[in-house]
Amino acid sequence: MKTTLSWLREYVELPAGITASELDTALTNLGMEVESIVDQSATVLGDLVVGRVLTIEELTGFKKPIRFCTVDVGRDAPQEIVCGARNFAEGDLVVVILPGGELPGGFRIGARKTYGRNSNGMICSAAELGLSGDHSGIIVLPAGAPAPGTDARPVVGLDDVLIDVEITPDRGYEMSVRGIARELATYFAVGYTDPASGAAPGATADVPHPVVVEDTVGCDRFAARVVRGIDPSAQSPEWMQRRLIAAGIRAISLPVDITNYLMLEYGQPMHVFDLDRLRGGLVVRRAQPAEKLTTLDGVARELDAEDMVICDETGPISLAAVMGGETSEWQQGTVNVLLEAAHWDPVMVGRTARRHKLFSEAAKRWERGVDPQLPLVALQRAVEILTTHAGGTVDDRVLDIDHVVAPSPITLPASLPSRLIGLDYPADRVAELLARVGCQVTGEDELTVTPPSWRPDLLAPIDLVEEVARLGGYNDIPSVLPPAGSSNGLTPAQRQRRSIGRALAENGYVEVLSYPFVAPGTADALGLAANDPRRSAVRLTNPLSEEEPLLRTSLLAPLLGTLKRNLGRGRRDVALFETGTVFLPHLTATAPPALGVDRRPTDEEWAAANTIVPEQPWHLAVVLTGDLDPAGWWGDGRAAGWADAIEAARVAVAAAGIPASRVGVRAAEHAPWHPGRCAEILVDGNVIGHAGELHPSVLAAFDLPKRTSAAELDLDAIPAAPVIDAPRISTFPAALIDVALVLDRTVPAGDVHAALAEGAGELLESVALFDVYESEQLGEGKRSLAYKLTFRAPDRTLTSEETIAARDAAVALTASRFGATLRGA
């Protein structure tokens, strides 16, 4: 929100000698973020003086008219200045910047020869001084202006202070001169004049234009006035243009400038319609599916059923509270206008603005909250300014459709601010501070507080406590450091997740952090079955984006979206991982009553509230595509495949401290993986996740390359890592024996691995698969799996008898479980 000190002074009696530092402190203590406070007189450097044009000589022979002038600037001799403007005459008073000066933007002025004449300065336009966007001519001062040589800064309004503050989302009333002035009045305890306190005529039985409001939830107030016969060529007054430019808004036309000006001054966004372009009466309603509207920025937009629109007989003509439409906008020849001021639902406006990516100044104010009592006052002020500068006749009829609900009283225990803030606030002090905010306060020990219409953020006792602390002075609240308790560092689960992250990073994976929001079609894109519990997702009441209103039940969906963005930016070989929570709702839980803020909930209330909190287990997801090993002079590269996703899962489980002997892998069918290239990962026989190649339909849905692979593990399902007792390294030699087992092709190699490890006993140090062989000689449906068994004793050299006995025991167990036979036996 940008404004000027002089504008604020019209409504608040600020101390006469207030400095920029004092103003900065006041605004900051009131809860505003001060972006800048700039003395406007410092934007023009050097001598800026009033001058009187003595002579004008017309220069010819150039592409445009040029004048050579002599100007009295209060010096010993007149200055010769070349000027291209033609809107002044001899004897006029003008604004001159002399050599050595500097205009806004760093444009330095010096004596120079131009158009064949010496020019010693510049006669300035309002645009060159940064006062307005008018480039049509130079500034011609009134006859009563100060004498030549006088400093021109106060004459043209360059002696003001520009203020730029950032307004927090809960304080929409501060997005106006009215709101900021009121806040400064409460801070300095000085007089305040509400600019919106003027009288305004109420609704009349007859209306100036027929209007029907079909949706009073989205629009609980709609007011309108009509002015006919205005001068379409009338310009906005200079004082208005200066204030609009100071606020960062360019001047467009008088009717539009008036609505923008009152939006800044009152905080009430308005809209002006060309009355002659309206077809029939107006209807305020929700948009119908597939309706279209071309907004003022020239973009044809398809409307959503949640959007509010203003329509005439031809259809939507304005995207309510956000931006008007092309078909009814004010045009250069407009002589009859309808001025509209309404009150719109802030939630609806916020969603519409985000949906259409139209974050207009009006939408920013509606989303934060606007005083519903402003429409008639703003309309009255608008028609007064319009008729003053453009003539015309005001229609005495006033339309005001009012369904506004008055603010509800709040019961506040007088002792609550003292208890929560930690300072002693007597009841009368609490009442006095809340009255300065604009609240109506009654009662003694228990206060009944009715918030003012411009404070929709005051809804509960805790909001009133915050106001007491703010106006009482945040700086008066003592800083008390909490006691520093002993800390044991990271929890075992945190250490486990960090170990997993480090291990994957060491293996070439890049960690990412995704938003936990997904679209309603995510479950279909992942190919989840109709009865898959991952289809049941938590829906957000106020999502950041209407396109992603659900919380994720799997890490893969946002991770695949990240992979797609990286591929779209030219990356070909990508390996990503993410650790984070997923959100699994309790489908049978019912919501308990809302808890108050005036007391601590009981244990039973906490337990009831926790029944609807979704489970939030930690998951790990991995996704990879392209070449895992790049090609180069050393040879061909190797493409990433489903086996690498399985290996990434193994790396993660190993980093969690689980020995390989407790980890299993077996074939499975589980969405979103390819049914023939999917494995489930087991620890102690329990499934903790899946890995493999993604299903082709999933790859098509996310527009990903073929053979893209992924893994997802439930980290909370991984048991705690055992305490590792470092074994004593044996100094005795190992005995190596190879066994080749013939068995059915359907028997998983991992199950055979586990059986060999179990049957070999304590002397087995390791077992590794090193060959898979298939041949018709082995028999139909048979294959050979060859394993290398390593035996070692910690205290002696094994004899051949001990080694063979352990081998035979291992082979015997595979024979009994899987019907395995030694190849060649």
Automatic annotation (TrEMBL):
Its EC number is 6.1.1.20. One of its GO terms (molecular function) is phenylalanine-tRNA ligase activity. Tetramer of two alpha and two beta subunits. Its cofactor is Mg(2+). It is found in: Cytoplasm. One of its GO terms (biological process) is phenylalanyl-tRNA aminoacylation. This is Phenylalanine--tRNA ligase beta subunit. One of its GO terms (cellular component) is phenylalanine-tRNA ligase complex. It catalyses: tRNA(Phe) + L-phenylalanine + ATP = L-phenylalanyl-tRNA(Phe) + AMP + diphosphate + H(+). Pfam families: B3_4, B5, FDX-ACB, tRNA_bind, tRNA_synthFbeta. Keywords: Aminoacyl-tRNA synthetase, ATP-binding, Cytoplasm, Ligase, Magnesium, Metal-binding, Nucleotide-binding, Protein biosynthesis, RNA-binding, tRNA-binding. Its main location: cytoplasm. Belongs to the phenylalanyl-tRNA synthetase beta subunit family. Type 1 subfamily. The gene is pheT. Residues 42-153 form the TRNA-binding domain. Residues 730-823 form the FDX-ACB domain. InterPro entries: aa-tRNA-synth_II/BPL/LPL, B3/B4_tRNA-bd, DNA-bd_dom_put_sf, Fdx_antiC-bd, Fdx_antiC-bd_sf, NA-bd_OB-fold, Phe-tRNA-ligase_IIc_bsu, Phe-tRNA-ligase_IIc_bsu_bact. Binds 2 magnesium ions per tetramer. Residues 405-479 form the B5 domain. It is an enzyme of class 6 (ligase). HAMAP family: Phe_tRNA_synth_beta1. Signal peptide: none annotated. Mg(2+) binds at residues 457, 463, 466-467.
